[in-house]
Amino acid sequence: MRGKIFHILIFSLLICACKQANKLxxxxxxxxxxxxxxxxxxxxxxxxxGLLTNASNSYDSTHIKNVYVQKWIRDQLILIxxxxxxxxxxxxxxxxxxxxxxxxxxxxxxxxxxxxxxxVITTQQIEQYYKENGDAFKLxxxxxxxxxxxxxxxxPKLDIFNTNWKSSNIKSVNIYLAANSPVMAMMDExxxxxxxxxxxxxxEKIKEKNLRSSxxxxxxxxxxxxxxxxxxxxxxxxxxxxxxxxxxxxxIILHQRKSKLIVKLKEDLYQxxxxxxxxxxx
Length: 282
What we know:
By secondary structure, the chain is an alpha+beta fold. The chain has three domains: 2-110, no CATH class; 117-133 and 240-272; 140-234, Chitinase A, domain 3, CATH 3.10.50. Helices cover 55% and strands 15% of the residues. Strand 1 and strand 2 (39-42) form a beta hairpin. Helix 1 packs across helix 3 and helix 1 crosses helix 4 (92-116). The longest helix is centred in the C-terminal third of the chain and has 32 residues, at 242-273. It is flat.
């Protein structure tokens, strides 16, 4: 429905512009390229619009001109047909006026918000919002916090790496990875991932139940060795950790501030002008 209304508005604006142009047909000494109904396309419209500036030779210039003329003719024919088809069904002037007012309000509010909105959000504010509204952030998919290393199967001393990996000897693991370039290394233990995202590149033998119930996993795939250390698993419908929803909380807080600011700006303007000569109530 919204899409239909939008297209009607666009058609309305185009029709209105077309009618206005017909009323104010300009006089030009430039060559005429085409005419459709009461509309005329002059060569200088292409030149002033910069459409011919990139033409490297006369052939390119002629080609660009012909393409534009054909497009212009099609647009004018559509406008004429749209005017004939829609004019009796919709109040074009009213639609255009409503659309103009909506655009003015939208841009005015954005300008006011841009200049006056407090965009600083503290950690305490984020934590407070999470504490009060955490239940609203139920997960729609399972999440996992993990470390993953993928090594080529021919990398030397894999057995030593595996021993250090299983014992969570992070220092030795990092030294090994620095000396032997891994195919992939995901070592941020504080980052959360979608379980589906992780499973998408792990060996098929590793299923979600493995991620849920295991801590250390190792599987081979396509000549590579996959080492997975499960740090935490969250099932669907559980409350996600703060780190996972911090970005969304910031957006929500900013949206709330924006809404309150707009309401206040409108009310302040009303109170300031209600008794002025601008307002007349009968």
